[in-house]
Amino acid sequence: MKVEMFVIPGCSECAVARARLRAAAQEVAKNLEWRELNVLDDLDYAVELGVMTLPSIVIDGELVFSSTPTVAQLRDALIERHGARV
Amino acid sequence: MFTIGKLATLTSVSNDTLRYYEQEGLVQPAGKSPAGYRLYDKDSARRIHFIKHAQNCGFTLAEIRELLVLRSRDKACCGDVRTRAIEKKLQIENKIRAMKAMSKALDQLIAECANERRPVRECTIIAALERAISMPVQ
Fold it and tell me: A12-28 vs A71-82: helix axis angle to the nearest 10?
């Protein structure tokens, strides 16, 4: 399972939230690939995926969150999409 | 202090536009003359220039209103504005992508219509557009 989070580096509060989300995702998914992408470095890829607001989270190529989800929302999304594999 | 006409001249926008900006809460007169005419100050002129520049960068009036709020908020930081600028860039890039796809679709239609002298009822572009219209919406 691949989770890609498009972010703008530099915001310390966002970094704390990201770390919390990543930890929660790792608890839910065994084979998790978590990538944090600087949207400015990967602009074309972000546009291709339909990212228009930040931060955005893409799960296995599908744009799922267009703003920071709660830990529970992310956990639910991962379980809903990949329940069989967790 | 300036009248609306003077402000319009200074900022190269029409009186109607200034009234519209006022209606939209983007700019407010600093006061009124004894005769009841709107009067504006230098800050109004700065705001109008700000609005025009932001429009040139693709921001809508609603987004500009948010930027103006951020501009005057003590706790806001440059990062808040930068995020909005990056999001606007993403939206513009998305539109460019969509428009390129439209242009490519038109290329195909233009290429298919090789004979310009054919009557319009045999026009392949019109036929292709009609086919597209009659396709069921997914």
Answer: 40
